[in-house]
Amino acid sequence: MTAKVDLMRGRMNMIKRLNNYIMSKIMGIRLRGVGAVFLGGFAGLSLTSTVLPTAISVVGFTDDFSARLDLAGFAVYAFMVWAFGGWACQRRGSAQAGAIILGLTGLVSAGVFAGLAYGAAQEVVLLCAAAGLAYGTIGGLLIAIALGENKGAAAD
User: Fold this and answer.
1) What are the Cα distances from residue 49, in Å, to 37, 68, 69, 93, 95?
2) How far is 125 from 3, CA to CA, in rounded Å?
3) The whole model's pTM is what?
4) Domain coordinates of the chain in residue numbers?
């Protein structure tokens, strides 16, 4: 009887050690950076497929569907630019810096995309730039708070 109890404890210790090993390998991958890249990229995709077409249709320049078609060619570029912005927010780790980084990313990317899609329609370009600034500021704040590297924990 005693041998079976010791055998079970040995198996439980082995399972715990295996779980600790697996978790240490997973955490070594830098999941925060990968998560920030994907969140930033999909936020950029959301900007071109939802936020900007809605802002353009609210002004009455064109309808949602047409705006989505007009901006569809920029989705890949938005994903790449915003993925880099998400990574930069996560690396900086400060909520204020994250809001500034992704806010400026939104301002510039939305303004450029609207300018390329609609040309000289200044009111549409300015409205899209403002929408990108607001969307990016909130997104950068959230990414930096949720996924930012904790500099204080590394020093401990």
Assistant:
1) 18, 6, 9, 28, 26
2) 77
3) 0.76
4) 31-149
